[in-house]
Amino acid sequence: MESFSLILAIVVVTALAFDFTNGFHDTANAMATTISTGALKPKIAVAMSAALNLVGAFLSVEVANTISKGLVDESGIRPEVIFAALVGAILWNLVTWLVGLPSSSSHALMGGLIGATVASAGFGAVHGDVLVTKVLLPAVAAPVVAGLASMLATRFSYGIGGKAEGEATRKGYRAGQIASAGLVSLAHGTNDAQKTMGIITLALIAGGAISPGSNPPVWVILSAGLAIALGTYIGGWRIIRTMGTGLTDLEPRQGFAAQTSAATAILASSHLGFSLSTTHVVSGSVMGAGLGRKGGVVRWSTATRMAVAWVLTLPAAALVGAGAESVTDLGDGGTAVVAVFLIAASATIWKISRREVVDHTNVVADTAEPAGVVTTAIAAVTPPPAGTVTENLTATIASPAAAEPAPQAAPPAATV
């Protein structure tokens, strides 16, 4: 190791902070359906997920190499650029967690990195082919593929099982759901923990601590795995509520189909080095499972809000990352200003979240989706559901049955 400067240490600590937010932001990906169907108690579910996230972090480094070697030109990147990128990613994670929206931590990180890199070295420093083939295309294809697979698996499950709904059947599917949830957690570790490994490795290369082209050191793999595991154990209860009950109502066999499909897609993408959004995959699988059951429904208003968040993630994080890079470019004082802003903004978001606490005690009991900024904004421009319109009409327009006594009102009518 040639050197380890103060700014490099700050970047590493900030990267691990992002990894922690990634953990609690994405706990829902593995455990939301397991908790919502009652297959596991909430605290047990997040503890199991945390342990398997840590194990998964050691299984591969392909995604880490995509981040550290492929997405941007590592030779023109300074540690301050990576710090600015992490600021954009962390703030987006916290804002979407506050409003209970399952957005992509992966795309937040890459958006921040792209924005900060462009602000520092121009568009030429971003490898557009890697961005398209290993980030954007998987982002579009993965939820569709996982959703179709989950829908077919759900229909197949109900087809071969007939109408068997005995206790033994439910227990069997719950056991399968626990196993598949563990597989998703393992897959999450192989994909999402590696993104932080990649960003730290990129920072070490930029700071001259390791040579270009190096794989993540063992201490980077261990620290990233521990950070995401700790965040997972804390539990992102707001997003678990949205993913588990806000999208659709799932039975154990649907949860099993959704999680198995998601785990297969994530593990395959990790093997190929695709920096896949586990949030997109699991959300697609949950919606597919909802559509796969006869009579099942998907709450498209929630799905629409999630889609809006997905579309905004990359550009929003990129804008914050670019802004932060412009300030850090002013020198050590600018870096200090950005650091203070990050801490103050994070503390403010946390304080706001305490106004309505969501934790393991009420994540399932209260299924109403918390009204956040995005929820309120979209509700203001979205037509009300059909049921609401009907209720309003019956309150203002008399029904035929109620209109029958109209002849009693004849005297007033005759005076007109």
UniProtKB/TrEMBL annotation:
It holds the Pfam family PHO4. It is found in: Membrane. One of its GO terms (cellular component) is membrane. The chain crosses the membrane at residues 6-24, 44-61, 81-101, 108-126, 132-153, 219-240, 303-324, 330-350. InterPro entries: Phos_transporter (IPR001204). One of its GO terms (biological process) is phosphate ion transmembrane transport. One of its GO terms (molecular function) is phosphate transmembrane transporter activity. Keywords: Membrane, Phosphate transport, Transmembrane, Transmembrane helix, Transport. The keyword Transmembrane applies. Its main location: membrane. The keyword Transport applies. Belongs to the inorganic phosphate transporter (PiT) (TC 2.A.20) family. PANTHER family: LOW-AFFINITY INORGANIC PHOSPHATE TRANSPORTER-RELATED (PTHR11101:SF54), PHOSPHATE TRANSPORTER (PTHR11101). This is Phosphate transporter.
